Amino acid sequence: MHAAVVAEFSRSPVWQEFTDPVPTADEVVVDVVAAGLHPRVRSQADGSHYTSEGALPLVPGVDAVGRFPDGTLRYFAVASDTRGTMAERVAVDPRASVVLPEGADPVAVAAGANPVMSSWVALRHRIDFAPGSRVLVLGATGASGSAAVQVAKHLGAEHVVASGRDATRLGALPAVGADVVVPLDDVDAVGAAAADVDVVIDYVWGQPAADVMRALVTARQERGRRLDWVAIGSTAGQEARIPSAALRASGLTIVGSGQGSVGRAAFVAELPGIVAAIADGTIRVDATAVRMAEVQAAWAGQVGGSTGRVVLEA
Fold first, then answer.
1. Which of 103, 118, 185, 247 has the lowest CB atom count within 10 Å?
2. How many secondary structure helices (H) and strands (E) does the chain include?
3. Computed from CA positions of residues 125, 130, 132, 135, in that sequence, does the dihedral angle turn out positive or negative?
């Protein structure tokens, strides 16, 4: 078979012949239909993700839509760091899959499930998220952040403040559920707009997160009221200088959400709801499909759209 193969962490994957997958007793071999090129996949391929095993060669890809031996079309996730989904075939544990609803677009599901999952699982499993909550999404102009705006509303948020750096994308977020949009560069404005939120979904971390944290806590009238800050991404830096006063003088609680803090069973349990919400259009996904054999060009940004998520299609 052919697969996108990473031979060195410093180089992009190459479409080439690779050994066929050998399933374990719990797995079946699946024909891959569409696999998303997520930031998580890029960090897997360059060895920088915190779960990286450091083993080479590897086939990147953490999830996909595929045709199972029984003929069903399913979304699935894989646990291996080295045998990923950007291949013609992959070995899959069927327990980590969900059948697509009739008429669902495989490209949309492959593009959207991963970014939707990040905020969906965080709100469902990392905090006690109550209907009627008020939410701030930091980094709302990326694919995961845009999805988080929609997920928060879908799961019952009353009010969502969206903040990000891309002015064009920020301006489009009210159409998918944002009640207020604020440029991330204007930290004081973010703090004022989000002064009464109950939850922060953070995809940026780094210095911007520390600055917003300080501004938000300062702007709160009821400083002792609980504020759940959920760190999911780190697009602005792996480290943040958190002011200790923000923790001592407020109800601020910081948690993370991702592989390790949430067990695999929790992710799998949420798959039916996530796939259904994408399939029926409740959560809108912007995706561009390119042929899997064009993985090098897709990796370099030479094919695919300038917005949304690129999906490699068989």
1. 103
2. 9, 15
3. negative
Rounded to the nearest integer, the mean pLDDT of the chain is 94
Phi/psi of residue 54, each to 5°? Answer: 75, 15
Joined tokens for residue 178: 């944002």
- Going from the C-alpha of 283 to that of each of 64, 143, 149, 181, 213, the distances in angstroms are 18, 12, 9, 19, 28
Residue 204 CA neighbour count, 13 Å, CB half = 23
User: In terms of DSSP bridges, do strands 251-256 and 287-291 run parallel, antiparallel, or are they unpaired?
Assistant: unpaired
Query: For the chain, percent helix, then strand, then coil, each to nearest 5?
Result: 35, 25, 40
pTM for this predicted structure: 0.92
Q: Is 228 helix (H, G, I), strand (E, B) or coil?
A: strand
Contacts with 243 (C-beta within 8 Å, 6 or more apart), sequence order: 210, 213, 214
pLDDT beyond 60 at 307: no
Q: What distance in Å separates the CA atoms of residue 83 and residue 60, rounded to the nearest whole number? A: 7
7 Cβ neighbours under 8 A, 6+ residues apart: 14, 56, 57
Please, which contacts does 70-78 make with residues 24 or more away whose CB atoms are closer than 8 Å?
72/99, 72/100, 73/33, 73/99, 73/100, 73/104, 73/106, 74/30, 74/98, 74/99, 74/100, 75/100, 75/109, 75/110, 75/113, 75/271, 75/275, 76/30, 77/267, 77/268, 77/271
CA–CA separation, 30 vs 65, rounded Å?
9
**pLDDT confidence band for 217 (50 / 70 / 90):** very high
Cα separation, 57 vs 216, whole angstroms: 45
Please say if the pLDDT value at position 303 is more than 80.
no
